[in-house]
Amino acid sequence: MRVSGSIRFILLSEIVFPILLLSFGVYHGVLQVLYRAGIIKANSVLGIEYYQGLTLHGVINAIVFTTIFIVAFGNGVVLYLLKKPLRPAVQWLSWLLMFGGTLMASWAMFSGKANVLYTFYPPLIAHWSFYVGAVLLVVGSLVPFFLDWIPNYLAWKRENTDKKMPLAVFGVFVNHILWFIMVIPVAIELIFQLIPLSLGIVKDINPLLARTLFWFFGHPVVYFWLLPAYVMLYTMLPKLISDKGKLYSDTAARLAFILFLMFSLPVGLHHQFTDPGISNSWKLIHAFFTFLVALPSMITAFTVAASMEYSAKREGGEGIFYWWTKLPYLRLEGDRWLFSYLFAGLILFFVGGITGIVNASYNVNLTVHNTAYVPGHFHTTVGGLSLLAFLGMSLYMLSKLKGVEVKFKGLAAVAPYIWVQGMFMFSYAMMVGGALEGFPRRTNTGLSYLNPDSPLYRPEWVGYAQLSVVGGFLLGLAFVFFLVSFLATLFAPNGQEPKLEFPIAQAYHDTPSPVLNNLKAWTLASVLLAVLSYLPALYDVTQRGIFYNSPAYHDKSPVPITPTETSQLDKEVKD
Amino acid sequence: MDRAERNATLLALFMLSFFFGLVVYAAKGLKIDLPTCITDVQPFKVGKLIRHAPDRYELHVVAKMWFFDMNEGQTRVEVPRGSVVDIYLTSADVVHGFHINDTNVNLMAVPGTVNYARVKFDRPGTYHVVCHEFCGIGHQDMAAQIVVK
Amino acid sequence: MRAFLLLLLSLFLFSFANTGSTGIPPNESRTVGKKLPDVELIDYTGRLLRLSELSGKPVILNPIYTHCTSACPLMTKELKRVLPLIGKAGRDFYVISLTFDPQDGVEDLKRFVQREGIGEPGWFVVKARDGSELFKLLDAIDFRFATLPGREFVHPNVLVFLSKDMKIVKYIYGVNYDPLDMRLALGMAKGETSPLAVLRPYLFFIGLAGLSLTSVLLVVLLSKKKRIQAKAGI
Description:
heterotrimer; B: alpha+beta; Immunoglobulin-like; 2 domains; five-stranded mixed beta sheet; C: alpha+beta; two-stranded antiparallel ribbon; 8 helices; elongated
């Protein structure tokens, strides 16, 4: 599929810009392990504070990079598989919204006006441009789905009434439907609570309601990051192993996507297990759904392993185990290098999935909540499979859009394995230190707990922090390897005709599945389930119990910045 | 779906329900439960350690930027070994965390509302408390101690 | 069949509707059916009394604190109104008003008795002999309270029904009591069982099964409809 003109520019910039931003994010990630281990004993380095860097690391890596890349990937997949041209006007609108929003939020973060971390829990409040930027980014990411992908699909369907939606498009659609549903509550939080509070229009808000609305979004969003990687595993991984490679089962893949659509949403309370004000019966129900949403990942584990076996056997692999040797672990011909990204991601996700069950397990969560265990876990999911798949696919799409071979292919292919090694060390240190010794997350421990001169010194955490430094160094190194290859490819002279294509594999088992393809009905069911599961929790945090609103605070001072004349609590005490 | 696939799915379902069954058993049978909604304990403004009986205490903690008020401004309290302590936690400003190492007490302090946990201190020693939710520039210094004698 | 499943689903949802209690409600699943420890109590005349002396008749236990000005006098008044409608204290059952304030003394109990005009035979107004006895009893009924400034307390407003052999049978919450509820609870304390009470501990699992079956059924129905449509070429 040829691409040219403004569409090519938009696709290219949607790949290059997030990667450049990601470099900042990774830089702050590496700095953080140094801060935490006490190698840097300071509040700030080069004018960027620890918590400012942590905000940049979280927001850029987890929100900006992922969202823009997923839009670029969706654009690419829809364009290639449906063979319908994208509309430049729509794409430009989306581009302006996403990039404008990102620049606004980046300004707030880089100028230190938004040290609120990725979760931006009120009543800590950031500059309004941070929130407005986030809203614009989200709106921009939805524009192509509604104005480009859906009309293109409907047009395609009219011409291909007998075919079902291509699996990759199906996955991309499910992902964006999920994205649309999950951003509604966080948009409510932003528009009705945080933006008015940051502008001083309202003086106080209910912080627990804000937390509940945030986590309605905050957990499903990890599936928003994960599903594009699953699309690659299902449709592209077999083809990378062998030209005759096939996906084991198309139905299982669709079933997994539908299960994600259903059960991703009623799970957010498992981030609030230790919150006050929410009845623990509802927490248990959300724990139950969290267990259910592990099911599609387990189905995926089977399907992907089966696809790998089938495809490796087409390359001459035999027996129960021998086919393992036929996988292209480190092969440089053609696009085979991409396999190492997906395979390394799979290894990490295996760890990430299992450790996620620990977080979901209701009372077991008490031992790990907000300790370093949590970042240890999610660096093997979003920092594992999602990130590696996105990096690999970015490089792949870049090379296709430039019409050149990937430069320094060896470096690019080795990078994910170094990443896996680094992440194993980092995550092991964080998870064990967190679960066994209570090593906290999100804390500049080098200043206090890991500073031998401080009265708060906790020697039992030193070893874990030091191991995480080694891991962090390897992670940084892997990213540099990738970046060298990426930049060299970017600045290479344009090659042949730029085109966009993906190695899409056919399915080995393929049965018609009209029920699974009825996306409209499943979307409705999913919304219903989400609303049902959240109504009691929302009732709890607004009506039951005692809730005083809280004025806004800046991260540098314990004095409220939107002081109310007398707080509700004072009034109550006077009565 | 072919047979291998169906079996794999069933196996996954079985494993998940087994784990979930254990979790419910731990919560309801072994009494390790999560904080729940408390409907009418007013948020308080001062920390206090109240002794009801030789081994029964009530600990009111106010988390503030950037210290824990455990007992009228102190960040260190002492209780005898074997004590059962009812911990009530609130926040005076932003969201804080409250984690007592080596126990199952892991709470969020959300302003305007009260959180609760009960803990029994069987082993003597110093129990470290850290704030584990980002609460501003002084977050890393926010710690307290419960000494069990 | 479908109606039945929907009923189970709604049971599942409503089994979590809280009973409108205040403070930290007792976790009934941990206490109902357990036997109370034989603690030593002191009544308002200063007489030592063992809880076991009251076995043989059902007991209604009402935790209060004596200088309470809101809920505890309300509960006591309501008991005075409702109890004659369901029987006679001392003949059909015993009533215990137990102060849970560890600092209450016999004098405080006396004042409470005079202020509320209670103390008929069979209605015991008592304190525990000391702190450890008190908390032994309170833990057994999972009663928790929070101290407020000025020695006020936030506590669940609750009546605990005990069977003849001092086992916990039933909790009734609030400050207003329906004679019918009280009679039912007393009946349970006397040993009459109701099927609902037997099922209650399993409600969560019944509901869970209901939810799963409902969703399976919905999926099956949905697919059937689709298949018929597909066959008909729609």
